[in-house]
Amino acid sequence: MPPRTPTTLLRALSLVLTLAGPLPGVLAAQPVPQGLQVKYVRDSEEYATLTRQIYRVAAATLPAPARGGSDGAPWAVALDVDETALDNSAYELERATYGIPFNDASWTAWVGRGEAGAVPGVVEFIRSVRAAGGRVAWISNRDERTREATRANLAAHGLWAEADLLCLQRAADTAYTKARRRSEIATGSGACAWPGTRPRMVAFVGDAMGDFPAPDEPASAGTPAGEAAFGTRFFLLPNPMYGRWVTQVTRPAPR
Ligand SMILES: [Mg+2]
């Protein structure tokens, strides 16, 4: 077994980060990553096969390319960025190596380096979307200030096109949630929209439940209810490195 950070230290760390207030995304209040969870993402054939499998299933649901010179009704897909399109396992590996928790400064520095890889399968999926005539919206809780670095990192993997939307979190505007941004896309108005266009949203891809519209959101129109949405219109990727699950307890502790 690898050495593990003492539980009491993790609890104290989690409490301190919680009291420090919300940081962008679920990366906030995350303990120091352990080696195996990062290694699974970086080294296991299973992780890469799993993400490619999910993206292949997602690609199979896309509309057929429009024919006869007609571009048809506009449709789009929405993807999260981190651990959905961009692979930040090198950042997580650095944190694990140095034993440091997540913090804004190290995260911003990492984003600025533009060294995140591409999650296996995403390049082929985006290629399929564009070949079929679909639009792409990237919805991320990365800070608005990272816009250019994020766009450059996506472009380095051939993931970015000028017509894409990049809908980021605005600093000090916690009300500008992913749900708000999805609504803007669906209604064709706002900063996160193709103005005047209400695209049919055919697929959502993400690594956290917050990447998928709730049943009462406009973007959910036409979505099968509940679990049935996953694998048909919602496509969930694994993330063993971080997420709300880290601090969530779903079962009572044994007596
Ligand atoms: Mg993510």
Features:
alpha/beta; 8 helices; five-stranded parallel sheet; two-stranded antiparallel sheet; binds magnesium ion; Rossmann fold
Helix content: 25-40%
CATH superfamily: HAD superfamily/HAD-like
- Biggest sheet strand order reads 5-4-1-6-7
| N- and C-termini, Cα separation | 26 Å
N to C succession of SSEs: HHHEEHHEHEHEHEE
Low-confidence stretches: 1-25
Main β-sheet, in a few words?
5 strands, parallel
Are any ligands bound, and if so which? magnesium ion
The amount of beta strand, in percent, is: 5-15%
Tell me how many strands there are.
7
Helix tally equals 8
CATH fold call: Rossmann fold
Structural description of this entry:
35% of the residues lie in helices and 13% in strands. It is built from 8 helices and 7 strands; from the N terminus they run αααββααβαβαβαββ. With 255 residues, it is an alpha/beta fold. The relative contact order is 0.16. Bound molecules: magnesium ion. Magnesium ion binds at residues 80, 82-84, 206-208.
Secondary structure elements and pairings:
Blueprint: H1 7-19, H2 35-43, H3 45-60, E1 75-79, E2 86-87, H4 89-98, H5 104-113, E3 117-118, H6 122-131, E4 135-143, H7 147-156, E5 165-169, H8 178-187, E6 200-206, E7 234-236
Parallel strand pairs: 1-4, 1-6, 4-5, 6-7
Antiparallel strand pairs: 2-3
Helix pairs in contact: 2-3, 2-4, 3-6
The chain binds magnesium ion.
